Write the structure tokens for this entry.
Amino acid sequence: MKILHLTDLHIGAKANDTPDMRKRIDFLIRKLTIDRHSVPHLADISPTDLPVVITGDLVDRGIDVGAFSLAKEIFITPLRNEGYPLFLVPGNHDYGTGSAANRTTEAEFHKVFKDEVFARESNNYPVLRWVNDVALIGLNSMEEEVDDDDDGDARGRLGGNQLNLLKSILSRPNVKNATKRVVYLHHHPFFKGFIKKHWMALDDTKELQEILKNQQIDLLLFGHKHEGKTWHGQIGIAKVYDGGTSTGHKNNLSPHRLIDLKTDQPEFDIDLNLLADYQGNRA
Ligand SMILES: [Fe+2]
Ligand SMILES: [Fe+2]
């Protein structure tokens, strides 16, 4: 099975950050839908067999009226109509402004994207979903950050409750016996080692690493820093990808990785480079 990793789209971004965001989204969607037969490596895969994991910052400002319905209309619905199974978790920008999160925006996000986040599972994180016998575990790195009164930063916090549930999910026999285990979240778990108080850090990254190591996780996906780097081999996980920003928000062009779960060797994964021939309004 293969997975397509997209992240940090920042749909609705301000014109002075990414003036042509709408064009970029439309181009990307075209490549994944009506033009997909002409995209090398994508052409021979049926969308129904290709889970798309979207690791947060779907929108630029969740707090803005209409931000979620726009993302749904121009991005989520076309992918869903094409048949791709969608796996979404929230990022800091989905919960407010990017630096200030609030409960109202959080609730709205989950109302609009319930199907993409939870599918038919319970409305709780971690989300455990299955594609055939592959277990996909989605974490909400904003879960406790939203109650942080020290706003004005882009940090994340999973919280003890979610971490305990993650531990118990990973110990379930069906998860242990899964063909592969995939974990996905928004915040960067290997952010410059263990800098706890950096304005973009995940507060409880050390605790997360303790839980994930030695659990035979096959693939770890995240976004947030817009760097698109790889962290293979960290805490014993063969493939670790920071997806960057799939729309090239603020001109940080990033890979669109097609990840092959059949192998633990990252060199077989492919950058679809979907914006390669984009002729839009690049600064
Ligand atoms: Fe982002
Ligand atoms: Fe982020």
User: Anything to note?
Assistant: Helices lie at 21-32, 67-82, 103-112, 114-118, 160-171, 173-176, 205-212. The CA atoms of residues 236 and 242 lie 16 Å apart. The first helix runs from residue 21 to 32. The mean pLDDT is 94.
